[in-house]
Protein backbone atom coordinates (compact mmCIF):
# COMPACT_ATOMS: atom_id res chain seq x y z
CA UNK A 1 0.00 0.00 0.00
CA UNK A 2 2.84 2.33 0.88
CA UNK A 3 4.51 1.53 -2.45
CA UNK A 4 1.27 2.31 -4.29
CA UNK A 5 0.98 5.72 -2.56
CA UNK A 6 4.58 6.53 -3.42
CA UNK A 7 3.97 5.50 -7.01
CA UNK A 8 0.88 7.75 -7.26
CA UNK A 9 2.84 10.71 -5.89
CA UNK A 10 5.59 10.24 -8.46
CA UNK A 11 3.12 9.93 -11.33
CA UNK A 12 1.27 13.08 -10.30
CA UNK A 13 4.49 14.97 -9.84
CA UNK A 14 5.83 13.85 -13.27
CA UNK A 15 9.29 14.93 -12.12
CA UNK A 16 10.62 11.70 -13.60
CA UNK A 17 10.17 13.16 -17.07
CA UNK A 18 13.52 14.22 -18.48
CA UNK A 19 13.53 17.36 -20.64
CA UNK A 20 15.69 15.47 -23.14
CA UNK A 21 13.06 12.78 -23.63
CA UNK A 22 11.10 12.61 -26.86
CA UNK A 23 7.56 11.36 -26.33
CA UNK A 24 5.98 8.80 -28.65
CA UNK A 25 2.47 9.88 -29.60
CA UNK A 26 1.38 6.78 -31.51
CA UNK A 27 2.57 3.58 -33.21
CA UNK A 28 0.70 2.17 -36.19
CA UNK A 29 1.24 -1.11 -38.00
CA UNK A 30 1.45 -0.81 -41.80
CA UNK A 31 0.85 -3.23 -44.63
CA UNK A 32 3.17 -3.57 -47.64
CA UNK A 33 1.45 -0.61 -49.31
CA UNK A 34 1.94 1.73 -46.34
CA UNK A 35 -1.69 1.53 -45.21
CA UNK A 36 -2.49 1.39 -41.49
CA UNK A 37 -3.73 -2.04 -40.45
CA UNK A 38 -3.57 -1.71 -36.67
CA UNK A 39 -3.15 0.99 -34.05
CA UNK A 40 -0.87 -0.14 -31.22
CA UNK A 41 -2.52 1.08 -27.98
CA UNK A 42 -0.46 2.84 -25.36
CA UNK A 43 0.18 1.14 -22.02
CA UNK A 44 -2.05 1.97 -19.06
CA UNK A 45 0.90 3.53 -17.15
CA UNK A 46 3.90 5.64 -18.24
CA UNK A 47 6.88 3.64 -19.46
CA UNK A 48 10.22 4.50 -20.94
CA UNK A 49 11.97 3.01 -23.94
CA UNK A 50 15.19 1.02 -23.66
CA UNK A 51 18.04 2.93 -22.09
CA UNK A 52 15.90 4.82 -19.53
CA UNK A 53 15.86 3.40 -16.02
CA UNK A 54 12.74 4.08 -13.94
CA UNK A 55 12.31 4.04 -10.20
CA UNK A 56 11.60 0.48 -9.08
CA UNK A 57 8.16 1.37 -7.80
CA UNK A 58 7.20 2.70 -11.27
CA UNK A 59 8.14 -0.43 -13.20
CA UNK A 60 5.02 -2.04 -14.59
CA UNK A 61 4.35 -5.09 -16.66
CA UNK A 62 3.88 -3.91 -20.22
CA UNK A 63 0.79 -5.12 -22.08
CA UNK A 64 1.42 -7.66 -24.79
CA UNK A 65 0.84 -6.16 -28.24
CA UNK A 66 1.19 -7.49 -31.77
CA UNK A 67 4.92 -6.76 -31.74
CA UNK A 68 5.69 -7.01 -28.00
CA UNK A 69 7.77 -9.84 -26.62
CA UNK A 70 5.71 -12.97 -26.40
CA UNK A 71 3.12 -11.74 -28.91
CA UNK A 72 1.95 -13.85 -31.83
CA UNK A 73 4.30 -12.18 -34.29
CA UNK A 74 7.39 -12.70 -32.15
CA UNK A 75 7.90 -16.25 -33.35
CA UNK A 76 10.91 -16.39 -35.65
CA UNK A 77 10.60 -14.62 -38.98
CA UNK A 78 7.03 -13.47 -38.35
CA UNK A 79 8.40 -10.26 -36.82
CA UNK A 80 8.81 -8.74 -40.24
CA UNK A 81 6.24 -5.94 -40.55
CA UNK A 82 6.68 -2.18 -40.57
CA UNK A 83 5.55 0.32 -37.94
CA UNK A 84 5.01 4.05 -38.28
CA UNK A 85 6.10 5.87 -35.12
CA UNK A 86 4.75 9.40 -34.62
CA UNK A 87 6.37 11.64 -32.02
CA UNK A 88 4.59 14.25 -29.94
CA UNK A 89 6.30 17.05 -31.91
CA UNK A 90 4.74 15.74 -35.14
CA UNK A 91 7.82 13.98 -36.51
CA UNK A 92 7.19 10.48 -37.85
CA UNK A 93 9.29 7.65 -39.26
CA UNK A 94 8.92 4.00 -40.23
CA UNK A 95 10.90 1.20 -38.60
CA UNK A 96 10.66 -2.58 -38.50
CA UNK A 97 8.70 -4.47 -35.86
CA UNK A 98 11.91 -6.27 -34.92
CA UNK A 99 13.66 -2.98 -34.17
CA UNK A 100 10.67 -1.70 -32.20
CA UNK A 101 10.76 -4.87 -30.11
CA UNK A 102 14.51 -4.56 -29.55
CA UNK A 103 14.19 -0.91 -28.43
CA UNK A 104 11.00 -1.47 -26.46
CA UNK A 105 9.06 1.31 -28.19
CA UNK A 106 5.49 1.89 -27.05
CA UNK A 107 2.78 4.48 -27.63
CA UNK A 108 2.83 7.11 -24.90
CA UNK A 109 6.34 6.14 -23.80
CA UNK A 110 9.38 8.37 -23.53
CA UNK A 111 12.39 7.91 -25.79
CA UNK A 112 15.87 8.88 -24.65
CA UNK A 113 18.18 10.86 -26.89
CA UNK A 114 20.48 7.83 -27.20
CA UNK A 115 17.66 5.66 -28.51
CA UNK A 116 16.52 8.45 -30.84
CA UNK A 117 20.04 8.86 -32.26
CA UNK A 118 20.31 5.09 -32.74
CA UNK A 119 17.07 5.10 -34.72
CA UNK A 120 18.24 8.05 -36.85
CA UNK A 121 21.52 6.26 -37.58
CA UNK A 122 19.66 3.12 -38.69
CA UNK A 123 17.31 5.23 -40.82
CA UNK A 124 20.26 6.95 -42.54
CA UNK A 125 21.77 3.60 -43.48
CA UNK A 126 18.42 2.22 -44.61
CA UNK A 127 17.65 5.36 -46.63
CA UNK A 128 20.99 5.22 -48.45
CA UNK A 129 20.43 1.54 -49.28
CA UNK A 130 17.01 2.42 -50.66
CA UNK A 131 18.53 5.21 -52.75
CA UNK A 132 21.11 2.79 -54.14
CA UNK A 133 18.39 0.32 -55.13
CA UNK A 134 16.30 3.01 -56.84
CA UNK A 135 19.18 4.70 -58.67
CA UNK A 136 20.60 1.36 -59.72
CA UNK A 137 17.57 0.74 -61.92
CA UNK A 138 17.02 4.20 -63.43
CA UNK A 139 17.86 7.88 -63.11
CA UNK A 140 15.78 10.11 -60.85
CA UNK A 141 15.28 13.83 -60.39
CA UNK A 142 15.69 15.27 -56.91
CA UNK A 143 11.94 15.83 -56.62
CA UNK A 144 10.94 12.31 -57.66
CA UNK A 145 13.53 10.64 -55.42
CA UNK A 146 12.38 12.79 -52.49
CA UNK A 147 8.79 11.68 -53.14
CA UNK A 148 9.81 8.01 -53.34
CA UNK A 149 11.69 8.16 -50.05
CA UNK A 150 8.82 9.97 -48.36
CA UNK A 151 6.42 7.26 -49.52
CA UNK A 152 8.80 4.69 -47.98
CA UNK A 153 8.34 6.36 -44.58
CA UNK A 154 11.67 8.13 -44.12
CA UNK A 155 11.49 11.43 -42.19
CA UNK A 156 12.31 14.69 -44.05
CA UNK A 157 15.51 15.23 -42.04
CA UNK A 158 16.97 11.89 -43.17
CA UNK A 159 15.74 12.33 -46.76
CA UNK A 160 17.42 15.71 -47.15
CA UNK A 161 20.67 14.44 -45.64
CA UNK A 162 20.81 11.51 -48.06
CA UNK A 163 19.83 13.60 -51.08
CA UNK A 164 22.54 16.14 -50.22
CA UNK A 165 25.15 13.38 -50.13
CA UNK A 166 23.97 11.97 -53.47
CA UNK A 167 24.09 15.40 -55.12
CA UNK A 168 27.59 16.04 -53.79
CA UNK A 169 28.71 12.65 -55.16
CA UNK A 170 26.99 13.36 -58.54
CA UNK A 171 24.77 10.30 -58.25
CA UNK A 172 21.80 12.67 -58.40
CA UNK A 173 21.93 15.42 -61.02
CA UNK A 174 18.90 17.25 -62.44
CA UNK A 175 20.97 18.74 -65.27
CA UNK A 176 22.13 15.32 -66.41
CA UNK A 177 18.58 13.98 -66.17
CA UNK A 178 17.20 16.88 -68.24
CA UNK A 179 19.86 16.53 -70.94
CA UNK A 180 19.26 12.79 -71.20
CA UNK A 181 15.49 13.25 -71.40
CA UNK A 182 15.75 15.95 -74.08
CA UNK A 183 18.09 13.81 -76.21
CA UNK A 184 15.76 10.83 -75.91
CA UNK A 185 12.59 12.68 -76.90
CA UNK A 186 13.71 15.54 -79.12
CA UNK A 187 12.57 13.69 -82.25
CA UNK A 188 9.22 12.39 -81.05
CA UNK A 189 7.82 15.06 -78.71
CA UNK A 190 7.29 18.77 -78.96
CA UNK A 191 9.45 21.23 -77.07
CA UNK A 192 6.37 22.22 -75.05
CA UNK A 193 5.62 18.61 -74.09
CA UNK A 194 9.23 17.93 -73.08
CA UNK A 195 9.29 21.12 -71.00
CA UNK A 196 6.03 20.20 -69.27
CA UNK A 197 7.28 16.68 -68.56
CA UNK A 198 10.52 17.90 -67.01
CA UNK A 199 8.88 20.67 -64.98
CA UNK A 200 6.45 18.09 -63.65
CA UNK A 201 9.48 16.14 -62.43
CA UNK A 202 10.68 19.18 -60.51
CA UNK A 203 13.34 20.50 -62.90
CA UNK A 204 13.74 24.28 -63.13
CA UNK A 205 12.91 25.95 -66.45
CA UNK A 206 16.38 27.42 -66.88
CA UNK A 207 17.90 23.92 -66.51
CA UNK A 208 15.54 22.68 -69.23
CA UNK A 209 16.60 25.52 -71.54
CA UNK A 210 20.24 24.59 -70.95
CA UNK A 211 19.38 20.98 -71.86
CA UNK A 212 17.82 22.05 -75.17
CA UNK A 213 20.88 24.15 -75.94
CA UNK A 214 23.22 21.28 -75.07
CA UNK A 215 21.24 18.99 -77.40
CA UNK A 216 21.92 21.42 -80.27
CA UNK A 217 18.28 22.24 -80.92
CA UNK A 218 17.82 24.67 -83.79
CA UNK A 219 17.17 28.34 -83.18
CA UNK A 220 13.82 28.05 -85.02
CA UNK A 221 11.83 25.67 -82.79
CA UNK A 222 8.71 25.81 -85.01
CA UNK A 223 10.60 24.60 -88.07
CA UNK A 224 12.26 21.88 -86.02
CA UNK A 225 8.87 20.72 -84.72
CA UNK A 226 7.43 20.77 -88.24
CA UNK A 227 10.12 18.31 -89.31
CA UNK A 228 9.48 16.20 -86.21
CA UNK A 229 5.80 15.92 -87.13
CA UNK A 230 6.69 14.96 -90.70
CA UNK A 231 9.04 12.29 -89.35
CA UNK A 232 6.30 10.88 -87.10
CA UNK A 233 3.82 10.90 -89.99
CA UNK A 234 6.27 8.92 -92.07
CA UNK A 235 6.70 6.36 -89.30
CA UNK A 236 2.92 5.93 -89.14
CA UNK A 237 2.71 5.46 -92.91
CA UNK A 238 0.46 8.50 -93.29
CA UNK A 239 -0.60 9.38 -96.83
CA UNK A 240 -1.98 12.96 -97.15
CA UNK A 241 -3.74 12.09 -100.40
CA UNK A 242 -5.66 9.08 -99.19
CA UNK A 243 -6.57 9.15 -95.54
CA UNK A 244 -10.12 8.45 -94.42
CA UNK A 245 -11.66 10.83 -91.89
CA UNK A 246 -11.33 8.43 -88.95
CA UNK A 247 -7.64 7.77 -89.62
CA UNK A 248 -6.98 11.49 -89.97
CA UNK A 249 -8.64 12.21 -86.61
CA UNK A 250 -6.65 9.44 -84.92
CA UNK A 251 -3.39 10.82 -86.35
CA UNK A 252 -4.21 14.36 -85.22
CA UNK A 253 -5.04 13.14 -81.71
CA UNK A 254 -1.77 11.19 -81.58
CA UNK A 255 0.26 14.28 -82.52
CA UNK A 256 -1.69 16.49 -80.16
CA UNK A 257 -0.81 14.17 -77.26
CA UNK A 258 2.81 14.65 -78.23
CA UNK A 259 2.33 18.35 -77.48
CA UNK A 260 2.30 19.83 -80.99
CA UNK A 261 0.13 22.80 -81.84
CA UNK A 262 -3.02 22.08 -83.95
CA UNK A 263 -2.07 24.60 -86.69
CA UNK A 264 1.38 23.04 -87.05
CA UNK A 265 -0.14 19.53 -87.19
CA UNK A 266 -2.56 20.52 -89.97
CA UNK A 267 0.20 22.21 -91.97
CA UNK A 268 2.40 19.11 -91.76
CA UNK A 269 -0.46 16.75 -92.65
CA UNK A 270 -1.46 18.86 -95.67
CA UNK A 271 2.09 19.17 -96.98
CA UNK A 272 2.49 17.24 -100.24
CA UNK A 273 6.28 17.05 -100.17
CA UNK A 274 7.72 13.57 -99.91
CA UNK A 275 7.69 12.29 -96.35
Rg (CA only) = 29 Å
Largest sheet: 5 strands, antiparallel
CATH topology of the largest domain: Arc Repressor Mutant, subunit A
Q: What number of structural domains do the residues give?
A: 3
- The number of distinct helices, counting runs of at least 4 residues, comes to 11
Strand content is 5-15%
Query: What shape does the CA trace take?
Result: elongated
Secondary-structure element sequence?
A: HEEEEHEHHHHHHHHH
CATH class of the largest domain: Mainly Alpha
Low-confidence stretches: 51-79
Tag the structure with descriptive keywords:
275 residues; Arc Repressor Mutant, subunit A; 5 strands; alpha+beta; 10% strand; single chain
Provide a descriptive summary of the structure in words:
- With 275 residues, this protein is of the alpha+beta class.
- The chain has helices spanning 2-13, 97-103, 113-137, 142-151, 156-168, 174-185, 191-200, 205-214, 221-235, 245-257, 262-270, and strands spanning 22-30, 36-40, 82-87, 92-96, 110-111.
- Strands 1, 2, 3, 4 and 5 form a 5-stranded antiparallel β-sheet that branches.
- The longest helix has 25 residues, at 113-137.
- It is elongated, with a radius of gyration of 29 Å.
- Mean pLDDT is 77; it is low at 51-79.
Amino acid sequence: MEDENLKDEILKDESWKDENLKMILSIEKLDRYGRVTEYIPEPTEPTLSKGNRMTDCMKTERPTSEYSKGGPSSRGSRISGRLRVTMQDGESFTISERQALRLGLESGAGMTQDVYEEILSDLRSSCMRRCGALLGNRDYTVKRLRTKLGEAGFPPLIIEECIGKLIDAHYLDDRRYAQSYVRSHLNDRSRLRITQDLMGRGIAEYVIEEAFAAAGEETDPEEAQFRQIRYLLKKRGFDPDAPDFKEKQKTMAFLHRKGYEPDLIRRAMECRDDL
